[in-house]
Design goal:
Number of domains: 1
InterPro entries: TMEM70, TMEM70/TMEM186/TMEM223
Transmembrane segments: 46-64, 76-98
Family: Belongs to the TMEM70 family.
Distance between the termini: 61 Å
Shape: elongated
Radius of gyration: 24 Å
Protein name: TMM70 protein
Keywords: Membrane, Transmembrane, Transmembrane helix
Length: 191
């Protein structure tokens, strides 16, 4: 309890004292968003990949030891199928679901461009640069998509933006709400 709190407070103090964080990239602009599941996504993907590699190496050994090669073709096919699902389908599915998970988002005010950092298939960080006008919001709420940057689906958690205005600008809400407000005024005047 207490010891942990003290050390975490020290960590916060040290972090705020050091001028540059490891995520400072002036070439990308200012950091406007940090995904809190970045480590989890990386961990789950890494675990999935390592399990798949382990399965690939273990398959011939399991077959030799279990004598499954002697069994009927049906049992063999079922066994291969099951191992295959865990070896290939799981990592691919995980990648499809998490490839748009934004780890960090930077914004350059002067050019109105964003740089989204995501993980690629080999767990390396990948930067996608897009303009605010490239942002499209899906018509129906999609499970792993908050918005599209050009054609790429991106997933962010709106509550994790330290400044809500940054989220509103990203989504283009600051433009549309302005018109809505004006329309409201006109309606009031008409009444």
């Amino acid at each position: 309890g207490l010891i942990f709190q003290v050390t975490s407070l020290q960590g916060v103090a040290v972090r705020s004292l050091s001028t540059s964080s490891p995520h400072d990239h002036p070439e990308h602009g200012r950091l406007v968003y940090k995904g809190n599941l970045a480590k989890t996504v990386l961990g789950v993907k890494f675990f999935s990949y390592s399990t798949s590699i382990f399965n690939l190496f273990m398959m011939p050994y399991i077959m030799l030891k279990s004598g499954i090669g002697v069994e009927s073709l049906l049992v063999q096919a079922a066994f291969y199928g099951l191992i295959g699902v865990f070896t290939f389908v799981t990592p691919v599915t995980l990648h499809i679901l998490t490839k748009g998970y934004v780890i960090r988002l930077y914004y350059k005010d002067e050019v109105d461009t964003y740089t989204a950092i995501t993980y690629n298939a080999i767990l390396a960080e990948k930067a996608t640069v897009f303009h605010q006008k490239d942002v499209k919001i899906p018509d129906i709420t999609k499970m792993f998509t908050t918005f599209y940057a050009k054609t790429k689906s991106m997933l962010v958690n709106p509550t994790l933006f330290p400044n809500p205005q940054d989220y509103n600008h990203l989504m283009g809400y600051d433009k549309s709400s302005f018109f809505k407000f004006e329309e409201l005024e006109e309606v009031k005047q008409a009444d």
